[in-house]
Design brief:
- The protein has 3 domains: about 80 residues, Winged helix-like DNA-binding domain superfamily/Winged helix DNA-binding domain (Arc Repressor Mutant, subunit A, Orthogonal Bundle); about 40 residues, no CATH class; about 220 residues, Rossmann fold, CATH 3.40.50.150.
- It is built from 14 helices and 12 strands.
- Helix 1 crosses helix 4 and helix 6 crosses helix 7.
- Strand 5, helix 11 and strand 6 form a beta-alpha-beta unit.
- It is of the alpha/beta class.
- The protein is globular and about 65 Å long.
- The chain is about 45% helix and about 15% strand.
């Protein structure tokens, strides 16, 4: 049997890991990671990034310790696996994850000190929200690995009038990625967090997609459309369990017959208890916690979905796919107009026939 754990040593290892991760984040914010995408002289990194040479050397020592780079004859050589992570568009997602981790943990500790609620999506820092949203750039991995295999989806999304439902849309990264993939598609993002919604609208306008992507101040359990969408994207860790379970029948009803749902949930590796615990805690802070694949699959079947299937992991997440049958009844939602009023400024504050959030008090 293994002996007792030396918690002093364990805490020291955790502290060293935290500071090493901080060094990686510092290298990101100083622009050093961009310089390390190819072999470069160490002195050139300090000069280009305007960093004290001794501090630069210490940061590089930390990067060497994690195997990101190596020193050779005065030059820094990126490890092949690290070099791959620094290539667009992966670098953008990686950098967003690093930045988001630090800004979110800082916010968490502040809330704990001040006695504020800890669980739930309460970030207001635009930089932290943008960083979290940019991690949605991993949608490219989803597109490459998963979406082409969903029966009939590609053809549906090429048709005029194809529509995407982005639940918990955040700052709109997923909607933007998918609308770029399918030039004829429109997207509706449900996002009750006001700051995220405003950032999302700004990003959508900057991408030139404000005529194709609309945001609504709306939670998924209030969704009231029928036969309106071809694809629904649902990030489970960000949705409170009650909201998610109440919303699934409404998503089913809102999908057109034969439409697909893709849900992301946290992947918890059984052979890595620390990784699993960290992801479970992170998901709890995000607001949705971790629901097991079996529980989610059962909820999808109960909501009326067919073809429920748990896919292979995608990064730190696992995708679950399900489909509304090509024929058959609908779920709970009733009385909705699937049309999107694109000719008025109130189009992205409406739910099928009545105004929602007129005072825009969400988030």
């Amino acid at each position: 049997m293994p002996g007792p754990i030396d918690f002093t040593e364990a805490l020291e290892q955790l502290s060293c890991s935290a500071w090493t991760y901080a060094a990686l984040a510092t290298a990101l914010e100083l622009g050093m990671l961009e310089q390390l995408s190819e072999p470069v002289a160490e002195s050139a990194v300090a000069e280009r990034c305007e960093v004290d040479p001794e501090l630069c050397a210490d940061i590089i020592d930390a990067l060497i310790a994690i195997g990101a780079v190596s020193r050779s004859d005065g030059s820094l050589i990126p490890a092949p696996s690290f070099q791959t992570l620094l290539s667009p568009p992966v670098a953008k997602v990686l950098q967003a994850e690093i930045r988001g981790d630090h800004l979110q943990t800082r916010s968490l500790l502040r809330r704990a000190r001040e006695g504020e609620p800890l669980s739930g999506w309460r970030l207001e820092d635009p930089v932290a929200l943008a960083a979290q949203g940019e991690t949605g750039g991993s949608t490219s991995l989803l597109i490459e690995a998963l979406l082409p295999g969903l029966d009939g989806l590609g053809a549906r999304m090429q048709r005029p009038g194809a529509r995407i439902l982005d639940v918990g849309a955040g700052v709109g990264v997923v909607s933007i990625e998918l609308c770029r993939l399918w030039p004829r598609a429109e997207a509706v993002g449900l996002e009750p967090h006001r700051t995220a919604r405003e950032l999302g609208r700004s990003r959508v306008a900057g991408a030139g997609l404000n005529q194709r992507i609309a945001f609504r101040d709306e939670s998924v359990e209030m969704l009231a459309e029928l036969d309106a969408y071809d694809l629904a994207f649902v990030p489970q860790p960000f949705l409170p369990e009650g909201s998610l379970l109440a919303g699934l029948p409404r998503i089913h009803a809102a999908l057109r017959p034969g439409g697909w749902l893709v849900m992301l949930t946290s992947e918890l590796p059984e052979d890595q208890p620390m990784v699993a615990a960290a992801r479970r805690f992170r998901a709890r802070i995000w607001g949705g916690g971790v629901l097991g694949s079996e529980q989610l699959e059962a909820a999808l079947w109960t909501a009326g979905f067919d073809g429920v299937h748990s896919e292979h992991p995608i990064g730190s997440f696992r995708a679950i796919t399900a489909r509304r049958a090509a024929t058959g009844g609908v779920g709970l939602a009733t009385g909705a107009d699937p049309g999107l009023d694109r000719d008025t400024t109130e189009r992205d504050e409406r739910i099928t026939g009545y105004a929602v959030g007129a005072a825009d008090q969400g988030g």
